Fold this sequence. Notes:
The chain is an alpha+beta fold. It is built from six helices and eleven strands. Helices cover 21% and strands 20% of the residues. The chain has a five-stranded mixed beta sheet with strand order 2-9-5-4-3, with helices on one face. It has a four-stranded antiparallel beta sheet with strand order 1-7-8-6, with helices on one face. It binds a DNA duplex (14 and 14 nucleotides) through loops.
Amino acid sequence: MPELPEVETIRIGLEKYLAGHKITSVEIKSHKTFQGDEKKIIGGEITATRRFGKVLVIDLDNDYSILTHLKLTGQYIYRGPNLPSPKELSSKVTGGVPGPHTLVIFNLDKGGILYYNDLRRFGWIRVVKTSEVETEPFIKKLGPEPFGGSTPSAGSGPSSLTTQGHGPKLLTLNIFRQILSKTSRPAKIVLMDQTKMGGVGNIYANDALWLAAINPRRPANNLQLEEQKKLYNAILSVLKAGIKWGGASDAAYVTPEGKEGLYQKYFLVYGRKGELCLRCKKAKIEKIVLGGRGTYFCPVCQKL
DNA sequence: CTATCTGTTCTGAC
DNA sequence: TGTCAGAACAGATA
């Protein structure tokens, strides 16, 4: 579930709770999930967090970093000092913490604990030298992304740059147009191709195409200049909204506080099969499968 | 009970 | 080389 806005919300939370804490020990329940030598991160102090597409990076002061991808059902839950009240966990924290789906536990100094839950066990945590983060194979394949990895201030808090270090390349309108022009694949497939651009997943791809009034099956290289611009702006717009509302808790996503995001209340078209289109208020939203994923669109506003 | 659906990325086949 | 179905996994829903 976690796409760019969800991962960014988690990053902001983790930075808040973890920065300045040292990792005192690591409990690994799943060696498929935790890759690399956990001894390298013990004793390290968390200095910063970064995000590359849907990948989260936790930098330590000992030249090592923790890379992690939550895939569909990964969750980071922090328990310890500085948590705002109420501290109750959402029922979407699968199995609780620690619970049957807790695969890794990071014990921190000053009484903090970071739990990694992952019901479907697709996610991973990887220990990498900080100097090798950007050349790590997964990171290296990622395309440029909206905001270039630094997110616009979404209302509260300081404008949250991905602290220090380097981030992903910026997806400009011109780069976006070039990407679209190179393939006849459906526009939605291109938006979700992480090697073409980083961060956009199923929910935000659906909403961006609806906002731009473009059919998801439309061949990417067939879009006119005005449509390219509308789609580019729509992507920025829905991602900003996602961050503003703290992500979308449609399924397993929760924040490090164990709370749900709110963007699911503001879905433009995702999940609205059979409901009246929010724009034309005439047609019912249809659902098809495109590239193996649920795809929602208005047959009137988003004609092929 | 079984079949289907979920949503991200990797693998293998064409 | 690009493209795409199926797999990885576990649970909710029909």
